[in-house]
Amino acid sequence: MKIFLTYLNNYKVPMALWILFGLINIIIGYLYQVPLERSLLWLAICGFIGIAAAAFHFYNYYKSHKELTFHQRQTHVEIEQLPPPANLIENDYQALLEKLNAAFSELENTKTQNEQEILDYFTMWVHQIKIPISALHLILQDEDNDEVSEEMKEQLFKIEQYVELILQYVRLGSASTDYHFQKVDLDVIVCETIKKYASIFIRKKLPVHYERINQRIITDSKWLSFVLEQILSNALKYTNEGSISIYLEENAIVIEDTGIGIQPEDIPRVGERNFTGFTGRRHKSASGIGLHLSKQILAKLGHRIKIESEPKKGTKVFIVFDPKQITTK
Length: 329
Prior knowledge:
Blueprint lengths: L1 H9 L1 H20 L4 H37 L15 H54 L4 H27 L9 E4 H11 L1 H7 L3 E3 L5 E4 L1 H17 L6 E6 L2 E6 L19 H6 L6 H13 L2 E7 L3 E7 L5 E2 L2
Parallel strand pairs: 2-4
Antiparallel strand pairs: 1-3, 3-8, 4-5, 5-7, 6-7
Helix pairs in contact: 2-3, 4-5, 5-10, 6-8, 8-10
């Protein structure tokens, strides 16, 4: 019914002219004393022909509308798939669409090329910067002052993490980034992450309570490892006493700390780009980019992040998995 009313509104001028011509015919017939039956017969014949023609025209109108609506729901549409133009104006519109489509394709190709150039540059930069970092690690092994050496090693570790963060940030925004989904043993990923941060645990004298998860899920191990590293890094950064625990709760890995916590009003915005909240304002080095990337990555992997926290009591970060992605050991 809505389409029919739209059709009437679109062609109201021709219909109004048809009615006007019928009235003119009746008036002229009256002035020339033509029998009324003749004028009514003319109206009936013209009306029948007009209604038949309008019905055929409405059928084509309805058919074209449905075909275009179908194409609107498709993710990709070629110009050749559109209904053939019914008149010169529609032909002009399709020609304009072809020009716009060609311009968009060229812009998309340029964008992809620029992204790849940026990714190649940062990849090269990361590999180059790792050379002096490795050299500094070797130099520090010969240092006599163990306390200074450990402090410098920790700072170098942070530099390596920030370098990796830059690279992942660029990769995540690239259209060419692919994801390799397979069955992954969560215990392997968690143990590797804990081992990577072992020196910081020792330096800060923080115990880690880890309960074996004994679970396998379908995910990308490289990206999930990156997310776990970011969450564990934040837990270590904001925890100076107490402990950090990692365990499985229902369909989620939980990283729980006894750190400074997060203000209740800040929790809904955690993970937004450049948002650091009250905690970030107290710690000037916070950028919020780690959790922002983690949230974006988990969404692409089909997982999600949930946070529970109380100021001065600690924070729980949940990496929640879809039950369909969980497999048996």
